[in-house]
Amino acid sequence: MALRDQAVFGPGSRGSLDEAGAEGREAAALAAAGVALEDDEEDDGRRGLLRWDGFSAWLHCVCVVGFDLELGQAVEVIYPQHCKLTDKEKTNICYLSFPDSNSGCLGDTQFCFRFRQSSGRRVSLHCLLDEFDKDLPVYLKKDPAYFYGYVYFRQVRDKTLKRGYFQKSLVLISKLPYIHFFHTVLKQIAPEYFEKNEPYLEAACNDVDRWPAPVPGKTLHLPIMGLVMKVRIPTCHDKPGTTQLTQQADTHTSIILPTVHEVDLFRCFCPVFLHSQMLWELVLLGEPLVVMAPSPSESSETVLALVNCISPLKYFSDFRPYFTIHDSEFKEYTTRTQAPPSVILGVTNPFFAKTLQHWPHIIRIGDLKPAGEIPKQVKVKKLKNLKTLDSKPGVYTSYKPYLNRDEEIIKQLQKGVQQKRPSEAQSVILRRYFLELTQSFIIPLERYVASLMPLQKSISPWKSPPQLRQFLPEEFMKTLEKTGPQLTSGIKGDWIGLYRQFLKSPNFDGWFKTRRKEMTHKLEALHLEALCEEDLLLWIQKHTEVETVDLVLKLKNKLVCN
């Protein structure tokens, strides 16, 4: 498919808004709001940065995707102009930015997609992002191999156009998995962009370029086209399940976001909350899972809710909130010559009902209801009953859960439904339930892995740091009798069977590699600390010149590595 980029801004041109004008606009927004950037916020986010460095800390680029009668879906604008996308990436963005024709999305639709970065692309993440990434919770760290696309799609009748419809998407491309934040940004700028076109987009991008860096743990005030958003990016030191940003309204803030990444969990799980614990197991174990939905909004929200349900554990396999038959990984993920991969796919095209019918776990959902409306609870059904995308909603699987269903959480949520409890409150209850379930599962693993650390007294400054002991599955299983999940969870069932299956999963592999890296780094730091406390001059007097040179070289290498 031929694609085109229309250079709507001339080289070096600032359009109607020059740099000084953009600065004035931001200063006016902040001044009107009574917000002054803190000195360290200015240091972190602005000082010494080149043009577009601030923008690159948040976004890779902004794309406008339209429908061309000759070319089909086409990238009309990439902004800033210097941002590069390969032809393969442009093709993915084109198809993923539009709902399938069968979705019938009239009006405005928001959704999210995720796609693989081209292998030929040079990986060059923004220096600030690399610096701050280490302070993020593991589930919010960037994956250098993937981009996120945040879409605001508009389809309205227009008799002046040959097709009779205006169809266009404004798409934010970013490495950051801040779903709620970027959807909120789009909600503020996309409607006006469709009315005012490119000059408005350029002005919005100039505002983003003047944002402070996305520093975890800091309260950030982000002006965007006359509004000021107040956000806080979580840190790895935050207590899971809590928010550090106060909801107290102030005169200078237009929008307060209590979360940058979370979705409305209960709205997504509402049709299947009777089976939420089984779905938690499937996600935990990295099982192949397909979400068949009527639109990209429903598919992307549900996939993201599934990935989020094992937090604070990171989902280490691939997941695609919205996946189409044109995706560059379509053949790889739909082949029948091998077992389905460990991936969660969100699809809307009826073609997938046939193409993916060999997959072991399929969730078929209907339209997600607005807050306050409760859809009928779906049933677990046999896979052979799933023939088309028109099949009744349900969880199609032959999977037998390892754990007994927790009736308490179901009663609690059902009571909330009867009492018309707000969806936000239901989401808090469900998120806390998933958090406690995940923590009960992971604490015994954390405890056992901590025991693999050598004792501090075994660290000698004159020898290489001791190695971590090997993870022995059977040794770990023996610890569960006394220090297993029964200490923190009342849920009964085959916990040992669940652990055995988890140890074979990509999620365990990713989790253990991360923990082993952290512990190895800790050992290196303790070894260096032990060296610093020694009397080197005394040691040199007792050893040969060759041994001394060898020690100096080792020390130099260690300091460089740290």
From TrEMBL:
InterPro entries: ABL9/DENND6_dom, DENND6, Tripartite_DENN. Belongs to the DENND6 family. The gene is Dennd6a. It is found in: Recycling endosome. It comes from the Eukaryota. Pfam families: Avl9 (PF09794). This is DENN domain containing 6A. It comes from Rattus norvegicus (Rat). Residues 60-522 form the UDENN domain.
